[in-house]
Amino acid sequence: MIRTVPTAPYKDQKPGTSGLRKKVPVFAQENYAENFIQSIFDSLEGFQGKMLVIGGDGRYYNREVIQKALKMAAAAGFGKVMVGQGGILSTPAASNIIRKYKAFGGIVLSASHNPGGPNEDFGIKYNIGNGGPAPEKITEAIFERSKIIGEYRIVDAPDVDLDMLGSFELAGMTVEVIDPVADYAELMESLFDFGAIRSLISGGFRVVMDSMGAVTGPYAKEIIETRLGAPAGSVRNATPLPDFGGHHPDPNLVHAKELYDDVMSTDGPDFGAASDGDGDRNMVVGKDMFVTPSDSLAIIAANARCAPGYAKGIAGIARSMPTSAAADRVAEKLGIGIYETPTGWKYFGNLMDAGKVTVCGEESFGTGSDHVREKDGLWAILFWLNIIAARKESVAEIVRSHWAEYGRNYYSRHDYEEVDTDAANGLMEGLRAKLSILPGQSFGDLKVAAADDFSYTDPIDGSVSTKQGIRILFEGGSRVVFRLSGTGTSGATLRVYVERYEPDASRHGIETQAALADLIAAADEIAEIKTRTGRSAPTVIT
Ligand code: VG1
Ligand code: CO
């Protein structure tokens, strides 16, 4: 039954910030997906007879790779696979299933916020038994294995019917096709005050959610419409489609602009939310107020006790390095730990497992907590609704009073997408070469206090991650950060993160780009962005 297939290695299967991501035609090359899946299995030990979770965001090629993964898991000796009906599991739901049913690990098929379709992106990520993304030690082992792999094993069997719930046998392994939504909805109901949110909504508070043709549609319909009572149609673009209906499923002011404009219109809803391809990102907008992801983390942390699941308070907060320091001020006030990690959710897992932190966040529209080990879009959206219901204030009122109490961290990220790879690497090398001479130099009124290349030592296991982003810190606490994306699939993407702290409440109403203009100009001068990339402006500003 088990067939051993000779194969030749591919040299480019290095997982990035969040798994292996490539264009579909790359994944569709002979044995490409098989090689990577076998490399995952070859890098793990002790899974014989145990359970694996498999699911994806429903994008183009999802079902094909799920069939391959099921047959390869059977050949590798897993005892059981739990797979979402239709091949669907959002990233946080997969994390929950792994934890709840004590699986050995999971394979999540997604390229997250990247577009889907025959010529767009696909991805494979391995998650460990705590439900979180595999740490670097494992992703590196997978990459090393993929460079020398010579064969893979697969069972010869007909495809599993992914659309029918129930348990089936596949060459001696059990396959259980599960409802992808039920366990997740139950978890959310255990964390948040659904009664209070239901009253808020029945009292006329209008909520809209844009699932962007991606995985959260069925989750949001069940939770927001069925359980919380929002009128039918409150969840838009609610059917997961292989090409996301042509949407770029990235919840930000550029790609979720329709929703934003609707909430801002005179008669628009009171609250708008959106999430990404695999359901781990979120965007929250209220009337007259867009909440930056960095502020969202800080405000959720400061108001955590509003939600029943966090009524005892939080143990600590972690944020990725480029995320603004707004959360740091909350941690200071609460007298709890604050941790600054490299970009990517995999760095939060150890801190959560050790009980050091409860909530985590990234500037890239990612927020979550130790209820799972991934960021969680709907969780953040429900947390906001819970806070609004408890405080009986609007989004704008909550944000403004937070700024008044803690000060405002003006924040923006400028992305230069699909830049020539050599030019982008040259820009980063140019910055590294300047690090030691920058301190003391002035750019307009800004004087550099310190400059470094961020490196992180994990406080739990001592592992070290270097070259995680160039930081230029100015006197007074403003800063710019430069890094190259680890999730793109063509060329390089330069990310420039800009932040200024403003304690003075009379200066909290400035337009963000204006408030950061001098820092943006300094970033260009220091990194020579325009000359090196040949671009006069960023492709995306968030
Ligand atoms: C980006 C974000 C990072 C996030 C990662 C995965 O990575 O910056 O914060 O964790 O995407 O998110 P990069 O390397 O491109 O900057 V998701 O929702 O795409 O899994
Ligand atoms: Co995502």
Write the layout of secondary structure elements.
Layout: E1 2-6, E2 20-23, H1 24-27, H2 32-42, E3 51-56, H3 62-76, E4 80-88, H4 91-100, E5 105-109, E6 121-127, H5 136-148, E7 151-155, E8 166-170, E9 173-178, H6 182-191, H7 194-202, E10 207-210, H8 216-227, E11 235-236, H9 257-264, E12 271-275, E13 282-286, E14 289-290, H10 293-302, E15 316-320, H11 326-334, E16 337-341, H12 349-353, E17 359-362, E18 366-369, H13 377-391, H14 395-406, E19 408-419, H15 421-434, E20 442-443, E21 446-453, E22 456-457, E23 464-465, E24 470-474, E25 479-484, E26 492-502, H16 512-515, H17 517-527, H18 529-533, E27 540-541
Parallel strand pairs: 3-4, 3-5, 4-9, 10-11, 10-12, 15-16, 15-17
Antiparallel strand pairs: 1-7, 2-6, 5-6, 8-9, 12-13, 13-14, 17-18, 19-26, 19-27, 20-21, 21-24, 22-23, 24-25, 25-26
Helix pairs in contact: 2-3, 2-5, 7-13, 10-11
The structure holds alpha-D-glucose-1-phosphate-6-vanadate (VG1) and cobalt (II) ion.
